[in-house]
Amino acid sequence: MENEIHNEFEALGYKIILSGYALVYLDEVYTLYSKSKGTPLYENLRFQCEMLISEMYYRNELFEKSWIIDFTLINDYSIDYPAYFNLIGRVKDTAIILDRVVEIKPFIFAFLTQTSCSWEGKIPVFGWYAKTYPDDDQNSSSILASSVNDLALEMGANLNASQSYKENVISLVKEWERAGDALHQFILSYKQAGNEEKQALLEKYFKKETLKFYTDYVNKYYVDKL
Fold first, then answer.
1. How far apart are CA 34 and CA 32, in angstroms?
2. pTM above 0.85, yes or no
3. Which of 94, 121, 190, 193 is the most exposed place for a label (fewest CB within 10 A)?
4. Residue ranges covered by each domain of the chain
């Protein structure tokens, strides 16, 4: 039964995405959600279904309804819960729209400083937080600075010791955006190239890219494929 429910959710989610998050599918999500009650699948499916419902409301500009769901979820689930970074990212966006940022600040601070979530999930939120709260008290800034050091280490990036944590976060975000764009362009070119051109593209990419995370990714998924 659990596999059946999981497969139903995958198929329904795909249908909803293709529809542009049409609200006509809300009842189907709720019906599927109710099927899992009393099974080991319940807590995970509850998170997934409510995330999907909230996304449907958000995409249809029903921000208050999206906010109510997401704010309940960030209270009910641990910051180490898988996909929590997706939740915190959206509730941040909704809070900005509804002018309720103060209510989620403690959750975001905890997420940035306590969770084991990868840097990819943290960095967009970190960039926003540093710009929104550049003058946090000294203790908070010290904790955040330590988190930024860990973030840079994961990325394989260098920090400027003379810069504030805010300046370093903004620099990391720019590096993340630059490297992401460069990787995207590399992949597009690589797919269209012949073997000799592929080798030249790889050499060019490794010569320019400085972030270890991205070079490791290309090594893993492209170098060994030649």
1. 5
2. no
3. 193
4. 1-60
